[in-house]
Amino acid sequence: MNVSLREKALRMLARRDHARVELAHKLSPHADSAQQLDALLDDLAARSLLSDERYAAARVHSRSARVGDARLAYELRSKGVSGELVKLALAGAEDELVRARQVWLRRFGNQPCVAGDAVERSRQIRFLVGRGFSGETVRRVLRGDLEDD
Fold first, then answer.
1. Of 93, 108, 123, which marks where a domain is finished?
2. pLDDT (tens digit, 9 = 90+) per residue, 51-94?
3. What is the spatial distance between Cα 84 and Cα 54, in angstroms, rounded to a whole number?
4. Is residue 24 part of a domain?
5. What is residue 116's three-state secondary structure?
6. Nearest to 142 by CA among 125, 119, 127, 129
7. Which domain holds residue 36?
8. How far apart are CA 81 and CA 137, in angstroms?
9. Other Cβ atoms within 10 Å of 3 Cβ, number
């Protein structure tokens, strides 16, 4: 194995967790062969230095206060995390309704969305949907419905 490739991988992992696919993509220009890269990634995973599960949990923890479940799932899948690990990581996150309410309060304060003000209501809807919150969650936040059904 190329020592400099291992060093590059360890430096990247020392800064933050990476998904296996993401790390492979970053290291592939520096690898002599795909087999060498796979062997290195297998070794790092065997030593618990590389873990998609840990990456997903860390990513959800760091981003969940700002974005919804749909956005988190998209970001994780785009980094190569499996669907099952995405579901597990999202299950460990705080309730989406609570997070959406906190995001809405930070952005709009206690501004009630008056029934007659369609422009303001649509602006708030676009903001929350753009953050990746589900339509049902957005409706419940704007209604002021904080009870779980």
1. 93
2. 999 999 999 999 999 999 999 999 999 999 999 999 999 998 88
3. 13
4. yes
5. coil
6. 125
7. 1-50
8. 25
9. 7
